Amino acid sequence: MAMMRLRREDPRVVGSFRLHRRLGAGGMGVVYLGADKRGQRVALKVIRPELAEDQEFRSRFAREVSAARRIRAGCTARLVAADLEADRPWFATQYVPGPSLHDKVAEEGILSAAEVASIGAALADGLVAVHEAGVVHRDLKPSNILLSPKGPRIIDFGIAWSTGASTLTHVGTAVGSPGFLAPEQVRGAAVTPATDVFAFGATLAYAATADSPFGQGTSEVMLYRVVHEEPDLAGVPDALAPLVQACLAKDPEDRPSTVQLSERLSEIATREARGHGAPRRDGVPKAAGPRPERPTGRRAEEYAEQHTERRPSPGTTRTPRPPVPLPRTPVRTPAGRRPPGPDRRLLRQRLIVFVTVTLLVALGIAAAQGCQGPARGLGFTGRPAAGSAQFPLPGT
After folding, report:
1. What are 65-77's pLDDT values in tens digits?
2. Please, what CATH class does the domain formed by 98-276 belong to?
C-alpha cells in the first residue's frame, strides 16, 4: 500500500494513536497509518468535518461500527478502536500489509483463472461471515480488498456508504465506482446480501480483465448501463464466466448466495491449479509439461519398432520380430555380487556344449580303439589260422 507524508493540515495524534503516514483519502475522510504506545500499527480513518455535522450520518456511523465489531476475525481488518462522539468521528482497524486488488492489477496486470478463483473463494467465505453478522458491505470493489500474506481482507464495511443510495448521482457524495454498484442501489431500493453479490461479480470480472464489466464513462452513463445493459464478459476465462454472469443478474433473486459462491469457486480454484482448465490453442489443450524428445537415426528405428504395431498385408505371413529387450536396472545379490548377465549365460551354455561334444568325441575314439585292441592281442597277423579254409595263392 502506497504511503505519503503527512500534510500540514493533518493531525499528528488521534485518540491514543500517533499518526505517521497518509494511506489514502476518499469522499468520506482520510486514512492514516498510526501506532499505539505498544507499537501496534493501525489504519485510522478520520471523517471529514462537513459530514461530522450531519446527525443522521453520526447515527448510521455508530450503527455500522457496532455491526463491524460483530464480524468474526479473518475476513476483514479487525476493528481496534473508535470514537463516535469526537468532533470528527474516527475509527481504527488493524493494519493489513499488502496491496489492494485494484493496485495489484494496475501494476502487475490481470490475474489468471486460478488466482481469481482462489481470491474469490476466500472473499465469498468472508462475505458469508459479514452477512451472518447482519452487515451488508454496500461498497465492495477492488480498492476495498487488501491482499495480505494471510489472504484477502475486506475493508470499509458499509461505513463510508452510510449516506445512502439516494445521493449516488450527486457530485462529491458518491462513494466508490458506479461500475460496481448493484441496480437496486442505483434505483434507491433496499439493499440485501445479494447487493454485495453483484459487486462481488463485478470485482471478479475486474481481476480477470482489468476493467469494469460495464466499461468506462461518466457516472450517469455507468449507472444507466448497470440498470439497463448486460455486462461485457469477453475477457473473463471460460471457467469463471458463467458464475460471474449469474452474480451480475439484474434481479437480486436470480443471483447465487455467498455460500454457493464459496463452494463453487473453491472447486474451480482446485481444478485450475491442477491444470485441468488449461487454455486451449487451436482446439488442443495446452500440455502440462515439455514433450519427451523423440530419438533420431538408428535409435529412431528401434523406437518405431518398439512403439508401432505392424500389420502384415493381406495374403502374406510375417514372422514376428522379437521385441528389443529393454535395459534392466542391475540387481545385486544378497552377497553383494552381480548375477550373471545375458552374455555370461550364453558363454556358459557354449562352454557346456563344447565340453559335452569333446567328451562324446573322446568316448567315440576310445570305443573304436577298444574294439581293435583285442584283435591284436589274439595274434592276428593277416594269415589264416590252422585248419581254416585256404585259398590257393598264385604260383602254388
Report:
1. 877 787 876 788 8
2. mainly alpha
